[in-house]
Amino acid sequence: MDRRPDTTGRPGAARDSDAARGPGTGRGPGSGRRAAGRGAADPRRRALRRRRLLGALFALPALLLLGALVAYPVVFSVLRSLFDATGDRFVGADNYTEMVRDPATLKALRNSAVWVVVAPVLLTGLGLVLAVLTERVRWATAFKLVLFLPMAVSFLAAGIVFRLAYEQDPDRGVLNAVVVGVHDAFAEPSPYPTARAREGKGLTGTPAGGYATGEVRPGSAVALPFVGVAPGAVPGDAERARVPESAPGALSGTVYLDFTPGAGGRPGAVDAREKGLPGMTVEAVRDGRAVAETRTAADGSFRLDGLAEGSYRLRVPAGNFAAGYGGVDWLGPSLVTPAVIGAYLWVWTGFSMVLIGAGLAALPRDVLEAARVDGANERQIFRRITVPLLAPVLTVVFVTLVINVMKVFDLVYVIAPGPVQEEANVLATRMWLVSFGGGNDQGLGSALSVLLLLLVVPAMVFNIRRFRKGGSR
Q1: Most confident option among 133-137, 370-374, 426-430
Q2: Cβ(217)–Cβ(280) under 8 Å?
Q3: At residue 253, does pLDDT exceed 80?
Q4: What separation in angstroms does the CA of 73 have from each of 64, 436, 449?
Q5: CATH superfamily, with its number, for domain 102-176+330-440
Q6: How many CB atoms lie under 10 A from the CB of residue 336?
Q7: More confidently predicted of 84 and 136
Q8: Average pLDDT, whole number, for the chain?
Q9: Which of 273, 261, 277 is nearest to 225 (CA)?
Q10: Residues of the chain above pLDDT 90, percent
Q11: Where in the chain is the domain with CATH 1.10.3720.10?
Q12: Fewer C-beta neighbours within 10 Å, C or N terminus of the chain?
């Protein structure tokens, strides 16, 4: 019987023929599907390439900007740090060794270390305490707004404000006005710090040691002339000076301003237009010991009664002329760095409070309520539950503040006066002063900038890794 394949057009003939060829012929059942898959993959690849190209085009301006503002300055600073001040001679690592030998740079490095240790710790602690407390305040939103407002003020403006607030003159510096006011409430200020005795008119001595007369006896009346008091510094209740009448068993006299406004007047004599100095302390001294004391009246007159017969000296003690309390020297060499850190705290406390407050709002309330049900007090809840749960947020805030503190410049440069600028310098201000502020050594300044970059980069890397870990969760 003839069993050759029927190719006369029967429907199964083509299928039987293809199957008989087997897989090696490339015309099996899967060849059509593979061809169709390749045809569909090509448009997908082309679409993916187009999307990537479009993304690169959109990112190109940002990459160019980062290259111009970040990458190029970093590379240029590294290269410039290897040359001398003129930029013409290659010196290798000499600028870096000079940093180690330069006392001003070492002081700036030490101040930067103080900033890194003190400011972030205080800000994180203050932010945590304020964030917890504001949860229990009725007007929490308004309170947070007030504390966050300094963030809207530039460091330059904040520096000018605190430079004025730290002025030592109580008439200009608000902090010293408060300090002097509190001090004078408990210790009476000296009435006439600028007064001095009229020379050659019966008084000898100095303001630091006090003034004294020659020997006098009870029943005498003595005039004690002083100068050096501005007319505006004379108390408003001062009256025209007069010498009281002498009295038996008493020493009397007047302490007055020996100055006649305008013309006229006789030195050492009480004239009609001269005023007494009220509130001046006068002592009667015998054998080196004060035996009687009084204060002058509004017209400068005084009287020491009950004195035995004998010789005395009238003494005007140095306390009458001691310089008044001038307040705290906030911008002196010893306090300028803490003063600038105080201004920094004023600006950044709201920032740390708001960030920590946001983390506090995200805490699971059921955990806190469970602790309260179990009998834990608020202190235990804060220390054992709230702080551990907020540890990631506190770490991010702390590291962010460390990075910011390392770059602080404006406040230090504006607040610290010229004579103590070196005492307050940090790495950023030292870098600027060396490069542009008179040092004109951009080689050393570039080396300082590289050092500053190396100190900031680890904190930045740590923060970025924490953000990525947080995002992966």
Answers
A1: 426-430
A2: no
A3: yes
A4: 13, 16, 10
A5: MetI-like (1.10.3720.10)
A6: 24
A7: 84
A8: 85
A9: 277
A10: 34
A11: 102-176+330-440
A12: N
Residue 202 has pLDDT above 60, yes or no: yes
Report percent pLDDT > 70 for the chain.
Answer: 90
The answer to whether 310 touches 217, Cβ cutoff 8 Å, is yes
pLDDT given for residue 38 in this prediction: 57
Nearest to 434 by CA among 179, 81, 187: 81
| The two structure tokens encoding residue 189 | 């200020």
Closest CA to 341 of 57, 34, 126: 126
Q: How far apart are CA 129 and CA 393, in angstroms?
A: 14
Residue with the two structure tokens 């009287």: 303
| Closest C-alpha among 408, 404, 411 to residue 427 | 408
Across 334-340, average pLDDT: 94
Contacts 24+ apart (CB under 8 A), 450-459: 450/77, 450/78, 450/81, 451/96, 451/99, 451/427, 452/406, 452/407, 452/427, 452/428, 453/74, 453/77, 455/112, 455/406, 455/427, 456/403, 456/406, 456/407, 459/399, 459/402, 459/403, 459/406
